[in-house]
Amino acid sequence: MKIFSGFLVVSLALVLVAGGCKKKEEQVVPKTPLQQSPMAVPLQEPMHAPMAASPHGAAPKVEKSVVVPDAVKGKWDKVKLVLEDKETQKSSEYTVKIKSDFKVPNTGLSINVGEFLPDFKMSESTLTSGSNEPNNPALQVEVFENGKSIFKGWLFAKFPAMHPLEHQKYGLLLKEGVKKS
Q1: I need a surface site. Which of 46, 64, 146, 169 has the fewest CB within 10 A?
Q2: Looking at the 3D structure of the chain, how many domains does it have?
Q3: What is the pLDDT along the chain (181 residues), one digit of tens a residue?
Q4: What is the pTM of this model?
Q5: Residue 50 counted as domain residue
Q6: Residue 15 lies in a domain
Q7: Residue 116 Cα distances to 15, 62, 173, angstroms
Q8: Domain for residue 1, yes or no?
Q9: How many CB atoms lie within 10 A of CB 122?
Q10: Which domain holds residue 112?
C-alpha cells in the first residue's frame, strides 16, 4: 500500500509540475487600423460623415478632413480618368479639371471630381499629401448615375483595385494627375 501511495503522490506531483511548465498560449490581438498599412483602412465612407455612435456601442467614426498642403495647392489642375466599358471591353480616357463636374458622354454617368493628392497620406483624422511628387496619387470623387449617387470615395492610380467603383457595366480608374503648365 505504501508503494501505491508513493506512486500516486509522485504521479500527482508530475502532473502538477507538467501543468505548471506548460507553455502559455499566445493570444492573437487584432491590429488596430493605425497599426496596419495606411491603405488598409476603408476609404469608401462618406467624405464628410457626421460623428455618431455605433448601435453596437463601438467608438464613433472620426470625420476625416482633407488637407491640401501649400506645396500642392494650385500645382495640379487636371486628372486623367479612364472609363472602362466592361461589356464592349473598350476604354476611354478623359482629362478632367480638378474640383469640377464631368458628364461622361454617351452614358448616364457624371463625376464630381474633388481634391487630388499626389502623395496620399492618412492619419486618424486627416487625409493629405506627403509631398508634391506623384508617389501615391489619389483622387476624391463622387459618381452619379442618372442623377443618383452610386459611389463616393477615393481612386488610387497605383492601387486601382482598392475601393473601386463597383458597377456592372463600368469601371473607373485614375490614370494620373496633370501638373499646371
Answers
A1: 146
A2: 1
A3: 555 455 445 554 554 445 554 444 444 444 444 333 444 444 444 444 334 444 555 656 667 899 999 999 999 999 999 999 999 999 999 999 999 999 999 999 999 999 999 999 999 999 999 999 999 999 999 999 999 999 999 999 999 998 899 999 999 999 999 999 8
A4: 0.67
A5: no
A6: no
A7: 66, 21, 13
A8: no
A9: 20
A10: 64-179
